[in-house]
Design brief:
Blueprint (H helix, E strand, L loop, with lengths): L3 E17 L2 E16 L9 E10 L3 E8 H7 L12 E5 L7
Antiparallel strand pairs: 1-2, 2-3, 3-4, 4-5
Length: 99
């Protein structure tokens, strides 16, 4: 049995509103669902499941994150922390610069 499993699934496209310094703008985004499954005891059928969503905008990248803080933090560079797995995080892009 696998101890840790991470999967990603494209669930569709959505128009999202970004509140940027230049004003409110709508962008088309691909919505992806990430699922992390953790089995602490390989002999048990009990698993812990964490989910998070990301909205990716072409030529910009991740524009919005929403879901379990444990999983969002992994993808946004804050590391992994299983001490608090109940926190729900929502992050939205506030500015970007294409070079």
């Amino acid at each position: 049995a696998t101890i840790v499993d991470v999967s990603a699934l494209v669930v569709g496209t959505e128009s999202i509103a970004l509140n940027l310094p230049s004003g409110l703008t709508n962008k088309d985004a691909v919505k992806i669902k990430f699922t992390l499954t953790l089995r602490l005891n390989p002999l048990s059928a009990v698993v812990q499941t964490y989910t998070a969503f990301v909205w990716l905008v072409q030529d910009i990248g991740p524009a919005k994150w929403e879901g379990c803080g444990t999983l969002v933090n992994v993808f946004t560079g804050l590391g992994i922390d299983f001490a608090d797995t109940t926190t729900v995080v929502s992050q939205s892009l506030i500015d970007y610069n294409i070079k």
